[in-house]
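Quick note —
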Amino acid sequence: MNGNGANPAELDRAVPTEHLPMRPLWLCRRCGLPWPCGRARLALVAEYRDNAVGLFLYLAGLLHEAIDDLHRLNPSTAGNATNLFDRFLGWPARHHGGAGSTTPR
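Predicted structure written out below.
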């Protein structure tokens, strides 16, 4: 850990600044698509290529924050929880075959 309490690995995360989420809407700052957009997904897969569990944990935390943000914005139209789950955690499960699997190299 460094002086601000962040783990050095967290400081080096390779999600490009142009494809970060615009909160509380959870749209991509660059392309306006629901975040994580395709470019953000590619960057996340590259960054976490050797740490699928870390990717799932990171995205699960963001899913929780997105649910809170979207619910605060408009409780009646916050979105379908199934759609949000798939948006944040479904795509890496399809890419990695689940958090616990190992991919052959």
